[in-house]
Amino acid sequence: MTGAMTAGSFVASLGRHRVVAVVRHHDADAAREIARACIAGGLGLIEITLTTPDAVALLSDLAAGAPEGVLVGAGTVLDPDQVHAVVDAGARFLVSPATDPDVVATAVAAGVPFVPGAATPSEIALGRRLGAPVVKVFPAGALGLSFLKSVVAVMPQVPLLPSGGISVAQVPQWLGAGALAVAIGSELDAAHASGGADAVAALAATAAATAGQHRPTHRPHTLGVPS
């Protein structure tokens, strides 16, 4: 499998980059432009959501041409058939808004890190028990920082990726609250709508620089990570 990588390596990449660019757009060409601008701006984790038209083809193209150190993954992965399709296309990691045991098991069997979505402590624990190296807290904006802080206090060993409704300006708050990394998305679309690829690249550069100032130092993110 070309997308295969160890869970530990994926967690390390999240801890190094600390920001995931979520590319979700109704136009495939615009999505391609946004993704490339994010890479040009210095973001090393690019998530192409399957709600984007021609998402698998876009993912394949980006994965084949990704610079050294850049990981291209698939988002909104909801069933086992989608897992197989995006892994074959070269996805290095998979993300979902939900925790489906069959989907997680398919990804684990394929050897590709899967990040299930969770909105409760029980769902977070389930995702880890199923073999997920990281759990996506979704929708993070609605759940709030206090939710993340409460989860971190009782589950410090679980690497968390908040996603949904987080702006670049809010990235330091979520990282400071204990997130291993943070996903940003809608703001990238807004930047593209207002200023094209240059605006996206500038926003991506700001996100990368901001995240780089907040290194993970206080959480044992590698404990219990499946290999």
Automatic annotation (TrEMBL):
Homotrimer. One of its GO terms (molecular function) is lyase activity. Pathway: Carbohydrate acid metabolism. This is 2-dehydro-3-deoxyphosphogluconate aldolase/(4S)-4-hydroxy-2-oxoglutarate aldolase. InterPro entries: Aldlse_KDPG_KHG (IPR000887), Aldolase_TIM (IPR013785). Belongs to the KHG/KDPG aldolase family. NCBIfam families: eda. Keywords: Carbohydrate metabolism, Lyase. It comes from the Bacteria. It comes from Blastococcus xanthinilyticus. It holds the Pfam family Aldolase.
